From TrEMBL:
BP-aspect Gene Ontology terms: methionine biosynthetic process; methylation
UniProt-recorded name of the protein: 5-methyltetrahydropteroyltriglutamate--homocysteine methyltransferase
Keyword terms of this UniProt record: Methyltransferase, Transferase
One Pfam entry name: Meth_synt_2
Organism: Ureibacillus massiliensis 4400831 = CIP 108448 = CCUG 49529
Domain Cobalamin-independent methionine synthase MetE C-terminal/archaeal: 13-339
Entries under SUPFAM superfamilies matching the protein: UROD/MetE-like
Top class in the EC scheme: transferase
Top-level taxon in the UniProt lineage: Bacteria
PANTHER family: METHIONINE SYNTHASE
Amino acid sequence: MTELVGPFRYDHVGSFLRPQKLKEARTKFQNNEITYAELKQVEDEEIIRLIEKQKEIGVLSITDGEFRRSWWHFDFLGALEGMENYEKDHGLQFHKVETSKKGIRVVGKIDFGNHPFLDHFKFVRDHAGDSTVKFTIPSPNMLHARADKNADIYPNENDLIEDTIKAYQKAIQAFYDAGCRYLQLDDTSWASLFSEETRSKLVDEGKNPQEYMETLQYVINESIKNKPSDMTITMHICRGNYKSTFHSSGGYDFAAKVIFGGLNVDGLFLEFDDERSGSFEPLKYVNRSDLKIVLGLITSKFGELEDKDSIKARIQEATNFVPLNQLCLSPQCGFSSTEEGNILEEENQWAKLTLIKEIAEEVWG
């Protein structure tokens, strides 16, 4: 394979299980037992180890494993100007489990300024050598899906939407200027459209599912419209990933025309690892030959390895709707969307990525 730009035939979503040394350091920092400088030193050391491990097993898109984050989205969103992180009374309700009580809220006008994630990217860039660095940030839609709003600051929610778009346009340019050419937007807000149950919840909140979907589309397309031509921006659409549990279920059908035919991203990372994700049929709405579809057929939630022939058969099934040369393979989600991580061992995640690489080389050559 001679690919230089992602998504790659064998790719991954971004996060990796946190090493025990890092977990211990984060706990000590939270308990005021070590300084931030001491925590950062551990983070730096573990990220360098992770980069080398990814190279060793042949990963093509190098990430920092999100090792500096507690959550895949709250850390980034809370560091935007006009936002802050705080502790909520309750966590998010996942399947049979409640998450930690992290939250974000609007405290001023939204903007992108001297964001710490720029330095996070530069660190990976400086240690990845000639490898392609993929950097992951939450979709702009996640600010509206998760943030506590403030009517005194934004009496009109459309103004909040427009400021968020402008902030993300600045962010994309800032990451590009720092050398990022492969940026991934992670987004769980689309999952609220995937089942009658979740669409009913939207209605209960006073939202029209069709209008809500059109807003999600608008925010994405406006946020990325000024991206440089040599920058790849993909999106991972997720149904939730916390300690090997999930937040929602349902196929892509309701939103298929918009997701596959109306988003101007360069690639889509999609969950297809079990029956909760529905069939491949919604892929029939893919209407661009330059859109890469990354099939998340390998679960990141459990350590048992999938059967290679079964995965190949599912890839072949997907070609009924999308040509093989537009398809790629990855896990359905990250291995550690939050610092707690999924219920599997580090050796399992590397075995999963090795399996994906082997399958991709046999399918695509």
